[in-house]
Each structure stands twice: as C-alpha cells, then as structure tokens.
Amino acid sequence: MLVASSIALVTSSYLAWASLTSTSVAGCGGDLFDCSNVLHSRWSSVMSVPVSIPAILSHLTILSMLFWEPRTERSNTIRWSVIGLVAFSIAAAGLWFMGLQFFWLQHLCPYCLAAHTAGLVVLGAYLMSGQTTRGLAKPWLATAAVAGMAGFIGLQMTNEEPITYEVIDYSQDDVSDEGMIDFEAPAGGAELFEAPTVSIVTPEPSPNLEIQLPTAQQWSALALSFAHPMSMLATEITVGSETADESDSVAENQGEEAEKAPVSNTVRLLKNVKLETASWPLIGKPDAELVFVELFDYTCPHCQRTHRSLEAARKHFGDRLAVISLPVPLDRDCNPTVRSTSSSHAEACELAKLAVAVWMTDREQFEPFHSYLFESKPSYNQAYAKARTMVDADKLESTMRSSGPSEYIAKHVTLYQRAGSGTIPKILFPETTVAGAVESSQSFINLIERNLR
Question: Residue 181's beta-bridge partner residues?
Fold first, then answer.
C-alpha cells in the first residue's frame, strides 16, 4: 500500500505540474497515447482545478495515516476508517477516469493510467491487510466513496467543453474574382492541378440476340403491295410519320433528362479556391444555401467526435446546410504529407477510396455509408461487405478497380496541402479554416452561423 500510494503521488504531482504550467508531458505523443488530449479535456478538472490535485491530497492522506501510530483503539479505528474511505474513493476515481480514456476520449495518458492502477492496488492492499475490521464496515465505506464520486462527476459535468480547435482567418486578404481558382474534380479536359482523366470501366451489357419477326400488319402490307404497287407509297408515308413521332419522343426524353441534371453551387474557400458541389462527395443538397468543406479521416478519433457534433448541427439547419466531405487518409500510402503511418490508420486509404467509390457508384447512398463508417468504425473487409449491400455490387467492384477513387483522394490531399496540412479535421469556410476537433454541437452551429452569413 505504501509503495503503490507513493507511485501514485509522484505521477499525480508530475501531471499537476504539467497542467498548471502548460508543459508538454514527456514521452507522451501519438495517436493513441496522447496525454495532451486527455489533460485538456473537460474531464481533466473540477471547478477549474486539475483532478491531479485531489489525487495528490488523497495519497498524502493515505501516506500520513500509514505513518501515524495511534495510541488508543479509538484513534486506530479512525485511522483505518480514513484509509478505507480514501482507498475506495481513489479506486472509484481510477475506474471512472480509465473508462473515460478508453471509451470516450479514445486517447490514453500513460502517467494517468499508472496513477489510477496504483490507486486500485492501494484498495486491494487495504482489503487484504487484515485491518478492515478495525474501522467502519466496508459496505459503508464503499457507499460513501461512490456517493462522493457521484458528486465529483456531477461537478465535472458542469465544466464547459474546452476549445479544441484553431480558427485561421483569411478575411484580411483581398480576393477578387480574377484571382479565383477553380479546383476541378478529376475528369476529362484541361486540369489546373493536372489531375489525370478518370475512366471507370463498367460491365458491358450482353448483346440483344432477340430476332424481331414481322408483325401481322407488316405481312398484310407486303401482300397488298404485290396486288396494288401504289400502296407502297402510303406505307412509306406511314413509316415516315412514325419515325418523325419517334424522333419527337426522343427529343422530349432528352429534354426531360436535361431538366433532371443535378444542380450545382459554387463554394469559395482558402481565399481563392472554388469547388462545384455537384463534382465532389456531398452530404446534403448541391444547391443548399450554406455549404462548407470538411477534410477528415474515417480512422481519426478527433474526426469521429467532430462527426457527432456536425450531425447535430445538420439537424439544426436542415436542408439549408450541405457539406462537401473529402476524406484525407492519415496513411503514407496515399498521403505523402504523413511521415509514418500509425497502426490505427493502417486501413485509412482503403476506407477513403471505398467511400469515394460508393459515391461514384450511387450518390444517394454516400451519406448513409459515410455515417456508417464513422459510427460503426468497421474494418475494411466489413465496410466493403456493407457497401456491396448498399450499391450495385458489380458497378462498385468495377469502380474500385478503376483509377477514379485514387485520383479523387489525390485531389483531396492536394487541397489539404493548400490548407496547410497538419491537424485534421479541417473545416474550410470562405474566409476562415477551422483546424481541430469541434466536439460541441453548439460550437459547430455558432461557427457555421458566424462564417456562412
């Protein structure tokens, strides 16, 4: 108990110092082991005090009780009652904070885990010490500890969501229409960003070998022509009339198809870049009033939390809001800005290409598949199997074999580089870029209202 409490005291003291001085935690940086994310979350403090401070006080209490040598039985009862109460409390706190890291934040702080584990060891040592009968009964101590922890959590719930993103403002730069750049999607024709032509191989339909036999009317006309040759002229006039009618019908169908062609809207971002909503993966309607661009990775925890707040914002704005959703994998296989690929992003390229392929195959299914990838967090094999149930499987396979998805991802990465690369997700508005997780739905709503007036 003495050793475990001492270890927890040292690690908690270091974390308190790092929090109070805003110092980076040594040896703690990466996608999974990210102490900065843990120590700057809303759960890292209570009433503006770092939670490591109450931890320090708790372990100091246990150590002082262990070194205290009471002379009366009553004092000894008090001693072990205090040790038991604090031991149950720090164990309950340890379970709470480890659960937050594993299941909510999805980032781990090794120092925090060491302190919480030491707290659990303290409780185990207390329960096996043989001194539990000298204090209050264990059920009473456990109940008091749980009640105290519930109050502690309640105080934490009142904490405001910390600002976890940076807003980069371009509004001071003058931009004219002459300086605007059309950031075109991969397609045929001239490409400002030298995107190759996208060619999607679609399965060729089987030739129609059905033999059309003459109709009864045609047999009658043929027989009549032998008896009365002048009847051929009437037949030609009739056929010509039918051909004209068919031409008119084709023209009408073409007109209807033109009317059904997808409408589009132009979005401006990064001072002088324009995108057409109909040319890129889109969540919402292409002619929506409010449109911005999101750069993200399906395997990024920050992006997953931002997706939750964005969904709430979309419900708030309804059909007025649309999002050009461009996956930017944090995987060196398709993103040269990444120096080394973390194991958590090992399938990021494949998932991003699959999402684009679903959009290229059936745009109506992109939104539900996009949500599925964020909410279910599937492996690539699971995601591919799901995609085959949502769109035409043969067309999807043909699209995946084509260069189209890879070329779209390359264009996304190019736009990501123009936005400064670095942190994702990135929200690109006309005059500003928001870099980092937006975890509060109200904060997202406020950003949209402020930047898409």
Answer: 273
Both tokens of residue 227? 């008896």
Residues 6 or more apart whose CB falls under 8 angstroms from that of 84 comprise 126, 132, 135, 136, 138, 141
442, pLDDT greater than 50: yes
Q: In terms of DSSP bridges, do strands 273-276 and 290-296 run parallel, antiparallel, or are they unpaired?
A: unpaired
Strand, coil or helix: 324:
strand
Question: Is the backbone peptide bond immediately before 336 cis, with ω within 30 degrees of 0?
Answer: no
Judging by DSSP bridges, how do beta strands 181-182 and 273-276 pair with one another? parallel
Q: How confident is the model at residue 239 (pLDDT cuts 50, 70, 90)?
A: very low
The answer to whether 348 and 371 have CB atoms below 8 angstroms apart is no
Query: What is the rounded CA–CA span in Å between residue 427 and residue 253?
Result: 41
Exposure letters 362-397 (e unless 16+ CB within 10 A, then b): beebbbebbebbbeeebeeeebbebbeebbeeebbb
Which letter, b or e, does each residue of 316-340 get, where b requires 16 or more Cβ atoms within 10 Å of its Cβ? ebeeebbbbbbbbbbbeebbeebee
CB 434 within 8 A of CB 270: no
**390 close to 365: Cβ distance less than 8 angstroms:** yes
Domains in the chain and their CATH numbers? 2-157 (1.20.1440.130), 167-201+265-451 (3.40.30.10)
Tens of pLDDT, residues 304-330: 889 989 999 999 999 999 999 999 999
pLDDT tens-digit map of 344-375: 899 999 999 999 999 999 999 999 999 999 99
pTM over 0.85: no
CA 391 to chain CA mean position, Å: 22
C-alpha to C-alpha distance for 451 and 9, rounded to whole angstroms: 46
What is the separation, in whole angstroms, between the first and last Cα of the chain? 60
Q: Which residue has the tokens 């707290």?
A: 119
